[in-house]
Amino acid sequence: PVAAGSGIPEIKCYLNGVKIPGVMRLRTVVCKATGVLFSVAGGLFIGKEGPMIHSGAVVGAGLPQFQSISLRKIQFNFPYFCSDRDKRDFVSAGAAAGVAAAFGAPIGGTLFSLEEGSSFWNQALTWKVLFCSMAATFTLNFFRSGIQFGSWGSFQLPGLLNFGEFKCSESDKKCHLWTAVDLGFFILMGIVGGLLGATFNCLNKRLAKYRMRNVHPKPKLVRVLESLLVSLTTTIMVFIASVVLGECRQISSSGHSGNDTLSLQDISEDVNSSIKTFFCPNETYNDMATLFFNPQESAILQLFHQDSTFSPVTLSLFFLLYFLLSCWTYGISVPSGLFVPSLLCGAAFGRLVANLLKSYIGLDHIYSGTFALIGAAAFLGGVVRMTISLTVILIESTNEITYGLPIMITLMVAKWTGDFFNKGIYDIHVNLRGVPLLEWETGVEMDKLQASDIMEPNLTYVYPHTRIQSLVSILRTTVHHAFPVVTENRGNEREFMKGNQLISNNIKFKKSSILTRAGEQRKRSQSMKSYPSSELRNMCDEHIATEEPPEKEDLLQQMLERRYTPYPNLYPDQSPSEEWTMEERFRPLTFHGLILRSQLVTLLDRGVCYSESQSSASQPRLSHAEMSEDYPHYPDIHDLDLTLLNPRMIVDVTPYMNPSPFTVSPNTHVSQVFNLFRTMGLRHLPVVNAVGEVVGIITRHNLTHEFLQARLRQHYRTI
């Protein structure tokens, strides 16, 4: 099911730092490629560019490890690129290669990966992604040129979508591709394109919500029936529109001058092959059928390069039908892209404007192909809200650098107009999925908030030396991917009780977490009773007598000197939170580092632990290669055979934790927190006060636009 749609929202989420299950699977790309082949060939109003970007990203994700979940028997001992950062870089390159192959635009593909995808970019990655995009473009060019023309190595077809050559006729001296006067019309077209794009996104959002409520919860057959209904309706509407609404127009050889070059072949052959008679008399053709019954690429070329072949009524009806049907189609359970339908819809809008200017205002000097191109850019920009990359993609596709200024102005105006009403289509679908996507930057008003206002104060933590039973309980009862490693600072506790102002100001952040910490202890105790080991059940029922350390002895110093001594509060049954005193409930937690869930599961899976009677030095040590051997698919805690683990054993996590992660002060402004989190590619950001105590943690969820807006409203209410 994850292969449905264009795949660009999913890739955007992945490159932003969020993993969506199944997006990078081999079976996904096989389903995607096969599905888009039949959905495009079947005549649905969708494109293949989005699925190509997704397919390229999946290839980029799978190549670094030379392995796949679907092909588990094929194993390569390839120890390189075993980190999320490396994999993300390969996915960025794969997505850029997909854009480059689709449009023949390697620079545009690189900018697309930078603008729409990657949150974490560096200078070295730019060259790598550009090289990958260039290789993809010329590989496709090599094979297409050889297969279509038989001239291997000629490199004549740079991309799957070719806009042809825009060139005025040599006999028409008044013709110009565009003039300064035309820029005013281009700005107006950008405004209209932004409005149309916002309308398209609004309608598609309502359709997506309806599908989420009424289609997706039902059996999978309902999705198939919906796709069949869309296909049936599209076929009927196209046929009826061509028969009833199409006009039979005379084939005029004078309208096909040498300036209207469609491709490398002779113009007359291309015109004759793409014009559809469709129940019209001889020497005439049906203009509506010529648009509907041609491949979308051919229809775009007709609108870009053919003159005096489509009436304003035909263009208006075609635009309306294509707008509604493509909006309905995008979102059904088939692999589908949005670039080509938006370009075709916008090209019809642009040709309509050109025809009206020629017929009713008398501007005979304008070049209709330019207005069709600007209309396509305006509508596509209003839908997807891309500026830099889309400008370069269209310039590279037209191979005409003089179009740079009008395309850029049109896209900017379309984006500004559309952003006034709603977000781009990809951002809308990301929000509907509930993915915590990080924007490029926060608003100025967010600096009224500090890290203490947005952090999560209710922490789930581990101790440097923790019993297996406690680790298993934590992993089974939470879904967090990282845990602070802490010790209880009793020295600061005494200072707090004496009324030390510094300590009391920092301790206040933990007051809201008292009940959560008590509930966490109860949850751990209940979880222990369901542990499959009978030995552990007995362990939970027993009372473990422990000696309280001397009052004057610092607990942290004791840990450093006698690391084999387990902490008194490691056992869930010995921490009755309901009976804690005031000092115990506000006890400071000294921060020592951060350890990942995958690391804890790996330690349990490999049996890395030591017994109470031994020193922690006797614990087996794992190398970095051994710890990352299962990347990227670490075992799940529920898949481990827990009966083989002795719950009395102790795990020393200090050799494997990150002792110096990025941290922030509770008083840090949100903009600084956001920039640090985004630019460094973090997933967890502990909040540590002035005396080294962890008072909260910030994750991606705490930095989303919706969460920050809610906290800002709460901040204003408290003021």
TrEMBL record:
It is found in: Endosome membrane; Late endosome membrane; Membrane. Gene3D superfamilies: CBS-domain, Clc chloride channel. Keywords: Antiport, ATP-binding, CBS domain, Chloride, Endosome, Glycoprotein, Ion transport, Membrane, Nucleotide-binding, Phosphoprotein, Repeat, Transmembrane, Transmembrane helix, Transport. The keyword Magnesium does not apply. It comes from the Eukaryota. SUPFAM superfamilies: CBS-domain pair, Clc chloride channel. Residues 657-713 form the CBS domain. One of its GO terms (cellular component) is lysosomal membrane. The keyword Repeat applies. It catalyses: 2 chloride(in) + H(+)(out) = 2 chloride(out) + H(+)(in). It holds the Pfam family Voltage_CLC. One of its GO terms (molecular function) is antiporter activity. PANTHER family: CHLORIDE CHANNEL PROTEIN CLC FAMILY MEMBER, H(+)_CL(-) EXCHANGE TRANSPORTER 6. Voltage-gated channel mediating the exchange of chloride ions against protons. Functions as antiporter and contributes to the acidification of the late endosome lumen. The CLC channel family contains both chloride channels and proton-coupled anion transporters that exchange chloride or another anion for protons. The presence of conserved gating glutamate residues is typical for family members that function as antiporters. This is Chloride channel protein. The lineage of its organism: Eukaryota, Metazoa, Chordata, Craniata, Vertebrata.
